[in-house]
Write a structure and sequence with these properties.
The chain is mainly α and about 120 residues long. It has one domain: Helix Hairpins, CATH 1.10.287.3510. Helix content is about 70%, strand content about 0%. It contains 5 helices and no strands. Helix 2 (about 10-25) runs antiparallel to helix 3. It is elongated. Keywords: Membrane, Transmembrane, Transmembrane helix. It is found in: Membrane. It comes from Fusibacter ferrireducens. This is Cation:proton antiporter subunit C. Its main location: membrane.
Amino acid sequence: MQILLNNYMIVGAIFLFGIGFMILLLHNNLIKKIIGMNIMDTSIFLLFVNLGYIKGKEAPIIIDGVMHASGYVNPIPTGLMLTGIVVAVSVTAFMLALTIKLYEKYGTIELDEIQNLRGD
Protein backbone atom coordinates (compact mmCIF):
# COMPACT_ATOMS: atom_id res chain seq x y z
CA MET A 1 0.00 0.00 0.00
CA GLN A 2 2.88 2.36 0.77
CA ILE A 3 4.26 1.84 -2.74
CA LEU A 4 0.96 3.02 -4.22
CA LEU A 5 0.94 6.12 -2.03
CA ASN A 6 4.53 7.01 -2.93
CA ASN A 7 3.86 6.61 -6.66
CA TYR A 8 0.43 8.20 -6.85
CA MET A 9 1.17 9.96 -10.16
CA ILE A 10 2.06 6.68 -11.85
CA VAL A 11 -1.00 4.99 -10.38
CA GLY A 12 -3.14 7.90 -11.58
CA ALA A 13 -1.69 7.65 -15.08
CA ILE A 14 -2.41 3.91 -15.20
CA PHE A 15 -5.94 4.54 -13.90
CA LEU A 16 -6.56 7.21 -16.56
CA PHE A 17 -5.20 4.92 -19.27
CA GLY A 18 -7.61 2.19 -18.13
CA ILE A 19 -10.55 4.59 -18.21
CA GLY A 20 -9.66 5.74 -21.72
CA PHE A 21 -9.14 2.17 -22.92
CA MET A 22 -12.51 1.06 -21.54
CA ILE A 23 -14.23 4.02 -23.19
CA LEU A 24 -12.56 3.07 -26.45
CA LEU A 25 -13.71 -0.56 -26.17
CA LEU A 26 -17.23 -0.19 -24.78
CA HIS A 27 -18.75 2.70 -26.74
CA ASN A 28 -19.93 2.69 -30.35
CA ASN A 29 -20.17 6.47 -30.62
CA LEU A 30 -17.18 7.84 -32.56
CA ILE A 31 -16.98 11.06 -30.52
CA LYS A 32 -16.78 9.02 -27.30
CA LYS A 33 -14.04 6.89 -28.87
CA ILE A 34 -12.07 10.04 -29.73
CA ILE A 35 -12.48 11.27 -26.14
CA GLY A 36 -11.25 7.89 -24.86
CA MET A 37 -8.20 8.11 -27.12
CA ASN A 38 -7.46 11.61 -25.80
CA ILE A 39 -7.70 10.39 -22.20
CA MET A 40 -5.21 7.64 -23.04
CA ASP A 41 -2.86 10.18 -24.67
CA THR A 42 -3.05 12.44 -21.64
CA SER A 43 -2.26 9.58 -19.29
CA ILE A 44 0.87 8.70 -21.29
CA PHE A 45 2.01 12.34 -21.18
CA LEU A 46 1.43 12.42 -17.41
CA LEU A 47 3.41 9.21 -16.96
CA PHE A 48 6.42 10.33 -18.99
CA VAL A 49 6.57 13.82 -17.49
CA ASN A 50 6.39 12.27 -14.02
CA LEU A 51 9.16 9.80 -14.84
CA GLY A 52 11.33 12.57 -16.29
CA TYR A 53 11.11 14.73 -13.17
CA ILE A 54 13.92 14.42 -10.60
CA LYS A 55 13.29 15.92 -7.18
CA GLY A 56 15.88 18.50 -6.15
CA LYS A 57 17.11 19.26 -9.67
CA GLU A 58 16.53 22.45 -11.63
CA ALA A 59 15.22 23.12 -15.11
CA PRO A 60 18.04 23.35 -17.68
CA ILE A 61 17.87 27.15 -17.88
CA ILE A 62 21.13 28.96 -17.22
CA ILE A 63 20.56 31.94 -14.90
CA ASP A 64 23.52 32.34 -12.52
CA GLY A 65 26.27 30.59 -14.43
CA VAL A 66 26.57 27.03 -15.60
CA MET A 67 26.21 24.29 -13.02
CA HIS A 68 27.41 20.74 -13.49
CA ALA A 69 25.12 18.66 -15.70
CA SER A 70 24.06 16.57 -12.71
CA GLY A 71 22.26 19.62 -11.26
CA TYR A 72 19.75 19.80 -14.10
CA VAL A 73 16.73 17.74 -15.07
CA ASN A 74 17.00 16.01 -18.43
CA PRO A 75 15.02 18.13 -20.95
CA ILE A 76 14.54 15.32 -23.48
CA PRO A 77 11.39 13.75 -21.91
CA THR A 78 9.70 17.14 -21.80
CA GLY A 79 10.62 17.84 -25.42
CA LEU A 80 9.30 14.45 -26.46
CA MET A 81 6.03 15.09 -24.64
CA LEU A 82 5.61 18.45 -26.40
CA THR A 83 6.06 16.63 -29.69
CA GLY A 84 3.59 13.99 -28.55
CA ILE A 85 1.01 16.63 -27.69
CA VAL A 86 1.32 18.13 -31.18
CA VAL A 87 0.89 14.70 -32.75
CA ALA A 88 -2.10 13.92 -30.49
CA VAL A 89 -3.84 17.17 -31.45
CA SER A 90 -3.21 16.46 -35.14
CA VAL A 91 -4.57 12.92 -34.87
CA THR A 92 -7.62 14.19 -32.98
CA ALA A 93 -8.31 16.78 -35.68
CA PHE A 94 -7.97 14.09 -38.36
CA MET A 95 -10.31 11.72 -36.50
CA LEU A 96 -12.88 14.48 -36.06
CA ALA A 97 -12.68 15.32 -39.78
CA LEU A 98 -13.26 11.66 -40.64
CA THR A 99 -16.19 11.55 -38.20
CA ILE A 100 -17.75 14.55 -39.94
CA LYS A 101 -17.36 12.85 -43.33
CA LEU A 102 -18.93 9.64 -41.98
CA TYR A 103 -21.83 11.64 -40.55
CA GLU A 104 -22.36 13.40 -43.90
CA LYS A 105 -22.40 10.07 -45.74
CA TYR A 106 -24.36 7.87 -43.31
CA GLY A 107 -26.24 10.37 -41.12
CA THR A 108 -24.96 8.80 -37.88
CA ILE A 109 -21.79 8.49 -35.84
CA GLU A 110 -22.67 5.14 -34.22
CA LEU A 111 -20.37 2.41 -35.53
CA ASP A 112 -22.94 -0.39 -35.39
CA GLU A 113 -25.45 1.67 -37.40
CA ILE A 114 -22.80 2.53 -39.99
CA GLN A 115 -21.96 -1.17 -40.34
CA ASN A 116 -25.64 -2.00 -40.80
CA LEU A 117 -26.02 0.70 -43.46
CA ARG A 118 -22.94 -0.57 -45.30
CA GLY A 119 -24.26 -4.14 -45.21
CA ASP A 120 -21.22 -5.62 -43.40
